[in-house]
Amino acid sequence: MPELPEVEVVRAGLEPSVTGARVLHVHVVDERALTRHRGPAEDFVARLTGRTVQAAVRRGKFLWMPLDDVGAGPEALVAHLGMSGQILLGRDRPAARHRRVVLAVQPAGRTADGLVEPPVELEFVDQRTFGSMAVDATVPTVDSAPAGHAGAADQADPDGAWRRRIPTQVSHIARDPLDPAFDDARFVALAHRRHSGIKRVLLDQGVVSGIGNIYADESLWAARLHHDRPADALSRRALTGLLDEVRAVLRRALEDGGTSFDAQYVNVNGQSGYFSQRLAVYGRQGQPCPRCGATIVREAFMNRSSHRCPVCQRRPRSRLG
Q1: Closest CA to 191 of 223, 214, 168
Q2: Which of 11, 61, 165, 175 is catalytic?
Q3: Does position 174 have pLDDT exceeding 80, yes or no?
Q4: Which of 2, 199, 200, 287 lies 20 to 30 Å from 119 when distance is taken between CA atoms?
């Protein structure tokens, strides 16, 4: 599943084309992509056509595009990539396989010659149909801080009303560690209330968003923590140190364009990320630990797997059977 770095790469790729763009046409190819939309496909089309997109914003793994207010109240086009979702941009390109929703938008910018840019096609592509798009109402953020990361629009329109509004479908999601408004003290306090393993806390999108299996494993390795260490047994220093490692891992992944193991994750131009070349433990079972040389192991964890170094990340004694 695309995690924070992958969704941020998509957001940044969309930003130049969609900020200030007008939606010319909407075609719903497969209504299964609208499972989160409260209404039929016709309603989705009607509520998008003719609207102006104000920005591309992300919180955790969620992406949304605030829309101009046409009297129905503040709304946004919300996208969640699910397991295999992609958002592709292009002009006169062959239709992508597994395309579910197509938007034709008129960018606000002009060419180098001063001409109006031609329309661009935005395709929502999803092989496994776990992703979704929806037009959703937005509500004020509970802390009055900007709702998420909006890239250049943060500086271009810092006082825009859309900045401090969040889609209702995303409002329950915690801020992510790269968000300037992320509260480290809140994370520590919530972790100290959990006796569950620290990896479960990292994956809880109500505590901290954007972290999935890949980046949880990489961050725990960097912090030398076993995934099953009880969160409430970790010191404040250990938890803040873990947050530092999480941020470092996420930033490195962003530099590399995210992690791609197959063609299911690509950026808006159809290109893969290459952070997989720098992974320390995830997917490297049987290979040597980059730090100590011990053999990386893969273990069952919930309905997925965890990867760790048995020397650098020793199992907590209290949980030994």
Answers
A1: 223
A2: 61
A3: yes
A4: 2
